[in-house]
Design brief:
heterotrimer; A mainly beta; B alpha+beta; C alpha+beta; A: mainly beta; 4-stranded antiparallel β-sheet; two-stranded antiparallel ribbon; 6 strands; globular; B: alpha+beta; Gyrase A, domain 2; Alpha-Beta Plaits; 2 domains; 5-stranded antiparallel β-sheet; 5 helices; 10 strands; 25% helix; 32% strand; binds zinc ion
């Protein structure tokens, strides 16, 4: 049972959290002006790196806040968490 | 045709006797019909100050803590979200004073009195009992009096409040649909204390 | 006292004899015995026969590493796949040997199993000398400490030896240490507890066997086994080491045993495992066994040391006792049948055994060195490296919050273990920022200086060159031999993981604790690679077998999954409802009357709704309150249709889609005030939709001033349905104007209903005139009973989800998640009307314009009418164009999503998703029903009252 550090509640069991996919994938400014291909890129295409990856998580079972986490997809280690209004931290 | 004397039912009323029959070291009871209002307001805004003044209580900003002011408990649920718990029958007056305090600023007040019921759990074994289904560290030096947490107890979401962590007394605020499950789970967890060993 | 039980040794309780039955024969042992020690005390070595070859197999070890002694315990409850070396003896125990496979009980297990969470600063696994010292050092600093050990008493290896600590028997020191730990309030010592898995962030699972050893006397109210869910800031692994054998021909013959295990049986249980022993070793440790056994009166015929030089100190001790020592010799094989009677001994020259001679014995002790128990360390992510001198893998990386101490890291001498434990605790405390309290470290008796390095010898060459390796057993439980390993490498396998799968070595209950590294060593020899480069197979939890019952804990029976109930649940139970699970909710499916089956009850309930009045508990719908100046804007962005134009007091149906344009949920939206809405979600989707809405609000549109609150359980909802519903409502809400003009369709009103405050909605999920009455959950019973009473003269009928489904399906209303599967758009559902053309954007809009979404052959929701009007199509049935199924591939046109019997249509009917379905209306397709194909007519999805005439009553 991994601990995920909620930026509000602190470390809690992973089962309390809900995974929300890649972070920093902004909803397009004007979807209607995009080509099918560009729209499909937004809807369907995501990076899948081995190593640090910025993700969205929600602390569903507690404070219900969405936040961002940088997680190493190879080790599952959460390297950093930051609130939605905070800048993405630099992790080595 | 109307019913002359509407009879409210609390979610665990039918288990009153079972809850009362717990073994030495554990006490369980439903505290029904408490007033519970969900408050959403910017903690730094003017409305928050006005709310605090109206309540005579501060809105705790430390995560997972609660403050008590008289017969009112204010539980932190999120960075801009609190649950106000007061004795029975206060929802209308409390909602009114909160809305007044918030005024034109953006906030939300939602009556959740019937959304959750409250189970009081106390006694020397209360902490052990909770530890069977709760992954949080309940050590009295960690989950101190006035700590609260939203988390799963066994398989049900609960809002746990340490009313007293030294002489253990907890409140479990449980969504009513889960209340019979939580009660059954708690009663089951008591079984090992029920009979004295060989 | 039997020939094999010594009167003056061991920790068994001789005042408590215990009778038991093994393989049908009665025996006697003592409290404190294991099943294995008691059998050995009775001269029984063979416990079973092997799985593939049926060869006799005996007890080989004294702990969980034993590969042979698999037993089935029959009393007090049948349990398969236990190891005789770990079963504590109790009176009335009945057990039998297993040839590899056990038999699960057919009865439900009456025992309790539970779980407990425990946090600590320092978790120490293993209460041997290293673990005890670590626990004491940490505990004395005031840290919260948990000490686990799998044995009934602390001491670890000290239980099977004769060491001194601080000039007194080591076990006295152990006793004092445990007493001190027990006296500290922040310390918990758990015996009979095996840490079986090390997971992330200091999370360790351990199994405590609380009442197994009590047998029939186990009290029912205590859990039999408990899973400890431990979260430690620092973990000290003092898990010891396992002795491993050397492989030679017929090394599986009963009477063949690990040397230190025989010593444990001697000192701990007072059992001598034979009368005449031969000891075969590659290292010093077995000499102690030889000496101790000789001192206990066994005849030790010889020590066969594979090393060219025997250690001088030990050789002298042997000489003193008349034990012959043959260095540079090996055991090449054995003679005997159910018990070894002779060991074949040969000199080893240039790696080849020379002329053999036989030494008569009934006990052949073997030591091929020691494997540190690195399982948990490896599970924690620690790296291992091969230690050439030890011939074993040892921890090689440093983990921040894990320290390995004692034999588990290759420290085999007592003084080293005691020092290790103290240092491990100091490292843990330093990491926690706690000072170490003073105290004198324990001091052991002097040990023999180890003069000769151990020799790493995996296997002795097989004298039978024709069938080389065929009886040299590597994994005794799997009957896998040296020949099998060579076959694997001969087939081209190089990876130890591949060899493991090919040979099954290490896949049995013992997970290769003694055989794994031997297999690796053989592979390395065979492919001429370094064993260090080949590495080990992965150490996966559990370390020892754990029953599913223990893992399930209390999550069984009525606690298996939370049953969510509405405030009306007890009334439904009393009314004899048949329930169905909808997500975690228990919902009445139908309310059978005496003698009714589901079909009959549902037809009756449907008739009541269509012809008079019926009512249903709809409290399970998810409810979310949306409040704030931008509430309408948020809903406009999330629903496909326009919500901002909704007036206070009105209700609108809405659909939400994902960004891919696929419908994810639907429900109604009530406008409570300019800045307040209450929306409903489908029963199973409430949490998901709240998360979904919060995700957009918090991550994309934090500038919107809106707040969302789940109010699902705040409100209880009763649907009142049917042409007479207005009359019934009027009776219970005398102050409410219920006529069509005052209270039109898709509006809501606040009113007193049944004497309690309510929100009444005029919405319909059946096409009939209908209301939904919402009251506080506390008042639900009052409302329900009042409606039943008021509707009595109209024959008001309670109905369940099945009738609800029939009524809505007759109207072609889809259920998201039943009639859709995440690939269905509102347009596919024939609901283009719910998709706003006016809004510049909303979630999903852009996807509707994709080429894929414009295809004419998308699957559409249509109705199906079986040509034979009483055939009920199975939900999920595939639809094809032809009355005969041709050769594959058969082109599938779609499938049945909902299927019911309709009282109103006097026929069966179905909803289905069909390719280009709207263009096929009127056509005949064929549906699979069992092995048959039956013709069905494609129809509009709205089969009942298509004009909507019944809505207003
Ligand atoms: Zn949180």
């Amino acid at each position: 049972m991994q601990l995920i550090p909620c930026p509000w509640c602190g470390p809690r069991d992973e089962v309390e959290f809900h995974y929300g996919g890649a972070a920093h994938v902004a909803y397009p400014e004007d979807p209607q002006s995009l080509t099918d291909e560009d729209w499909a890129r937004y809807v369907f295409f995501r990076d899948n790196p081995k190593g640090p990856f910025a993700e969205r998580w929600c602390h569903t079972a507690s404070c219900r806040r969405w936040f961002n986490a940088i997680r190493d997809t190879a080790t599952h280690q959460v390297l950093a968490v930051y609130r939605m209004d905070e800048a993405k931290p630099v992790t080595s | 045709m109307t019913v002359d004397h509407p009879q409210r039912r609390s979610p665990l009323a039918h288990l009153t006797a079972e809850l009362a029959a717990t073994p030495v070291g554990v006490s369980l009871s439903e505290v029904p019909f408490l007033t519970q209002l969900n408050l959403r307001v910017d903690p730094l805004g003017r409305a928050a100050r006005a709310v605090e003044e109206a309540l005579g209580a501060t809105l705790p900003t430390a995560a997972n803590t609660a403050v008590a002011a008289g017969d009112l408990d204010v539980l932190w649920l999120g960075p801009d979200e609190w649950l106000l718990v007061a004795p029975e029958g206060r929802q209308e007056s409390l909602e009114k004073s909160l809305r007044q305090a918030i005024g034109t600023e953006h906030g939300a007040v939602v009556d959740l009195s019937a959304h959750r019921t409250t189970v009081e759990l106390s006694g020397a074994l209360a902490r052990d009992l909770l530890a069977k289904g709760c992954s949080l560290d309940l050590h009295p030096a960690v989950f101190t009096t006035g700590s609260c947490a939203q988390l799963p107890l066994a398989q049900a979401p609960v809002l746990l409040l340490a009313r007293d962590s030294e002489m253990p007394r907890y409140w479990l605020l449980v969504r009513t649909s889960f209340a019979p499950y939580v009660a059954a789970w708690l009663l089951d967890a008591c079984v090992e204390y029920a009979a004295s060993g060989p | 006292m039997s020939l094999y039980r010594l009167p003056d040794r061991g920790r068994v309780d001789r005042s408590t004899p215990v009778t038991f039955t093994y393989n049908g024969s009665p025996y006697t042992g003592y409290a404190g015995d294991t099943l294995a020690s008691a059998l050995l005390a009775n001269g029984v070595h063979q416990v079973t026969t092997s799985i593939k070859y049926g060869r006799p197999r005996g007890i080989m070890a004294a702990g969980p590493e034993d590969p042979n002694a698999l037993v089935q315990v029959e009393t007090p409850f049948p349990e398969p796949m236990l190891t005789a070396t770990t079963v504590e003896l109790y009176d009335g125990l009945v057990a039998s040997g297993l040839s590899g496979q056990g038999r699960l009980a057919t009865e439900p297990d009456p025992a309790r199993y539970d779980a407990m969470h425990q946090h600590c600063d320092v978790l120490v696994v293993g209460a041997g000398p290293a673990g005890l010292t670590a626990a004491l050092t940490a505990a004395r600093s005031g840290a919260r400490v948990v000490l686990l050990d799998d044995q009934p008493e602390a001491g670890g290896s000290l239980l099977g030896t004769t060491e001194l600590i601080d000039d007194r028997p080591a076990l006295e020191w152990v006793e004092a240490a445990v007493a001190e730990l027990d006296s500290l309030p922040e310390v918990r010592v758990l015996s009979r507890t095996t840490a079986f898995g090390f997971y992330d962030d200091g999370f360790v699972l351990a199994l405590e066997r609380r009442t197994d050893h009590l047998g029939f006397a186990a009290p029912e109210h205590l859990s039999r086994q408990r899973v400890w869910r431990l979260r430690a800031k620092h973990v000290v692994l003092a898990t010891g080491a396992h002795e491993r054998p050397v492989v030679f021909a017929d090394n599986d013959r009963p009477g063949t045993m690990l040397a230190a295990s025989a010593r444990t049986y001697l000192h701990r249980y007072g059992v001598r495992c034979g009368q005449r022993a031969v000891v075969f070793t590659t290292n010093d440790s077995a000499y102690q066994a030889a000496v101790d056994l000789a001192d206990a009166g066994l005849e030790v015929a010889a020590v066969i040391d594979a090393r060219p030089q025997s250690p001088a100190g030990w050789a002298a001790e042997c000489a003193e006792r008349g034990i012959e020592v043959r260095s540079g010799h090996v055991v090449t094989g054995t003679t005997g049948h159910e018990r070894v009677i002779r060991a074949h001994v040969a000199q080893l020259t240039d790696g080849r055994p020379q002329l053999r001679s036989g030494i008569g014995c009934d006990l052949l002790l073997v030591s091929g060195g020691w494997n540190p128990a690195v399982h948990l360390f490896s599970q924690a992510g620690g790296r291992l490296s091969y230690d050439d001198a030890l011939g074993a893998f040892v921890p090689s990386s440093s983990l921040e919050a894990v320290t390995v101490a004692g034999a588990a890291r290759g420290t085999f001498q007592l003084d080293g273990c005691l020092a290790d434990g103290g240092e491990a605790a100091q490292r843990a405390l330093a990491g926690l920022g706690r000072p170490t309290a003073g105290g004198t470290p324990p001091r052991p008796s002097a040990a023999h200086e180890s003069a000769e390095r151990p020799l790493t010898l995996w296997t002795v060459p097989d004298p039978d060159e024709q069938h080389a390796g065929a009886t040299q057993f590597v994994d005794l439980q799997r009957d896998a031999t040296v020949a099998d390993v060579l076959r694997a490498t001969g087939a081209g396998l190089r990876s130890v993981e591949h060899v493991k799968r090919y040979t099954t070595i290490g896949t049995a209950h013992d997970q290769g604790k003694t055989s794994g590294i031997i297999s690796s060593g053989l592979v390395a020899q065979s492919v001429r690679a370094g064993i260090a480069d080949l590495g080990t197979t992965t150490f996966r939890p559990p370390y020892t077998p754990v029953s599913f019952a223990a893992l399930a804990g209390r999550d069984r029976g009525h606690l298996h999954d939370p049953e969510r109930v509405t405030p009306l649940h007890l009334l439904h139970v009393a009314a004899g409802a048949d329930f169905e699970d909808v997500g975690q909710w228990k919902r009445p499916r139908y309310f059978p009357r005496a003698g009714e089956d589901m079909d009959t009850a549902v037809l009756r309930e449907c008739r009541a709704a269509r012809e008079s009045v019926a009512m249903m508990d709809a409290s399970t719908l998810g409810k979310i309150e949306v409040e704030g100046p931008d509430a309408a804007e948020l809903l406009d962005r999330l629903y496909t249709n326009l919500m901002s134009s909704l007036k206070v007091g009105f209700i609108r149906y809405g659909v939400m889609c994902g960004v891919d344009g696929m419908a994810i949920d639907d429900g109604t939206v009530m406008r409570l005030a300019d800045d307040r809405f209450l929306l409903t979600t489908t029963t199973g989707n409430a949490a998901k939709i709240l998360d979904w809405m919060e995700e957009w609000l918090q991550t994309e549109w934090p500038d919107l001033a809106v707040r969302l609150t789940s109010v699902t359980e705040q409100w209880a909802t009763v649907a009142l349905v049917g042409p007479r519903s207005r009359d019934v409502l009027a009776l219970v809400a005398p102050e409410l104007a219920v006529d069509n003009d005052s209270f039109p369709f898709m509006t809501w009103r606040e009113a007193m209903v049944a004497g309690v405050p309510a929100r009444v909605c005029r919405i319909s999920f059946s096409g009939e005139l209908a209301f939904e009455v919402n009251v506080s959950g506390w008042d639900a019973v009052t409302l329900w009973e009042a409606l039943l009473a008021a509707g009595e003269s109209y024959g008001i009928t309670a109905y369940g989800t099945e009738t609800m489904h029939v009524l809505r399906a007759e109207k072609g209303y889809p259920i998201i998640g039943q009639d859709t599967d995440g690939t269905v758009t509102p347009q596919d559902l024939g609901m283009s009307w719910v998709v706003s053309k006016k809004k510049p954007d909303f979630i999903g809009k852009r996807s509707f314009a994709r080429a894929e979404n414009q295809r004419a052959d998308r699957k559409h929701l249509v109705g199906l009418l079986p040509v034979q009007r009483d055939i009920l199509l199975p939900e999920g049935a595939q639809l094809v164009a032809d009355p005969q199924i041709g050769p594959p591939p058969v082109r599938m046109l779609g499938h049945v999503t909902s299927s019911y019997r309709s009282a109103a249509l006097e026929a069966t009917f179905a909803l289905a998703l069909v390719k280009g379905g709207r263009d096929r209306i009127g056509q005949t397709l064929y549906s699979t029903v069992g092995d048959e194909l039956v013709p069905v007519t494609v129809a509009e999805p709205v089969l009942y009252d298509p004009e909507g005439a019944r809505r207003d009553g």
